[in-house]
Amino acid sequence: MSEERLITRNRSGRGSHSIPWLFVLAVVLLGTVFFVPTPYYVTRPGSAIELAPMIDVEGGKKDESGAFMLTTVRMGEANLAWYLYAQLSPNAELMKKELVVGSGESNEDFTRRELAVMDNSQKIAEAVAFRLAGYDVKIENQGVWVMGTIEGMPAKNVLQIGDVIVAVDGRPTREAKDLLQYLSTKKQGDQVEVTLIRDGREEKRTLTLAPLPDSKTPGLGIRPDNKQEIIVPKQVSISSQGIGGPSAGLMMTLEIYDQLNQEIDLTRGYKVAGTGTISPDGSVGRIGGINHKVVAADEAGADIFLAPDDAEGPVSNYQEALETAKRIGSRMRVVPVKTVDDALAFLKAQKPKSSYSE
């Protein structure tokens, strides 16, 4: 008996000494899984958010029996855990970092750019909606919007995303083509004085032109867009809750127009989700991650999903959305739209949901 008890104590002792090593091993493994980065971002379904609480139009009405909903994608840097999750989940996918964040661009730059694009999308949505409602809208070019800077070029670490270039060497640059035309008269090594608006203040910077990576022509090294002032006759307040990107343009247009329109409830009692960029002429453009947005809309109980019927890729956003809806067994009706008029025509043709027998 004494020998047996001695053996038991020895075994117990060995086990107690092994516990700390198991704990250390577990901590190391968890640290590896959750803190070791990968060269990927992971994207997955976000949410479907009702727009009426987010948008207020002066003198507008909010008597929708249904709802217009924007849809989002969750995106973040993929640690090893998210990498493994994306390998197993049909509703998550990996994207190489360089396809999400530009060369030399920080996460802060990416966020700033996405919010700037969202702001521009809101203004265009206002313009399109007010024009549809019969109001006069003024659109004036304000300058060249800096939407990114190129690593190793003069603008890097001097200009910021969101800066608006209003003049170069005292010459107005109301749109990107004005900037490009003037710089085409210069040569590598020439210095130019850039006048810009940053956070509402005018500032000046002197930059030395360098050959652009692709064309080798002298330039600043920015990714430009046109900054426009859009003036509508009524006040519009949009609380986008930190959502970035241009893909809510179509749905914001529909919500603003519905608040301006006094004749018909465009929702017809349905939960109408969707996505797509909006252009000043009312055309609807392609977006990324539509498969995730379909899942988000379905989980939120949407009845209808409006999808861009574009020709920019081998497969249109509409076809992607339709395939995803079939894969997850969704009962949503997926509707192709090329313009905001297509969306309005479809919605106006629907019988109110209450007229259907459940």
Overall description:
By secondary structure, the chain is of the alpha+beta class. The protein has two domains: 38-137 and 232-352, 2-Layer Sandwich (Ribosomal Protein S5, domain 2); 141-229, Roll (Pdz3 Domain). The chain has nine helices and 18 strands. It has helices spanning 2-35, 80-88, 97-100, 107-132, 176-183, 249-260, 290-299, 317-327, 340-348, and strands spanning 37-50, 55-57, 67-79, 93-96, 138-149, 164-168, 171-172, 191-198, 201-208, 210-211, 218-219, 222-231, 236-238, 271-274, 277-278, 284-285, 304-308, 333-337. The strands form five sheets. The chain has a six-stranded mixed beta sheet, with helices on both faces. Strands 5, 6, 7, 8, 9 and 12 form a six-stranded antiparallel beta sheet that branches. A two-stranded antiparallel sheet has the order 2-13. Helix 4 runs parallel beside helix 6 (249-260) and helix 7 packs across helix 8 (317-327). The longest helix is centred in the first third of the chain and has 34 residues, at 2-35. It is globular. The chain starts with a helix and ends in a 10-residue tail after the last helix. This is endopeptidase La. InterPro entries: Lon_proteolytic (IPR008269), Lon_Prtase (IPR027065), PDZ (IPR001478), PDZ_sf (IPR036034), Ribosomal_Su5_D2-typ_SF (IPR020568), Ribsml_uS5_D2-typ_fold_subgr (IPR014721). One of its GO terms (biological process) is proteolysis.
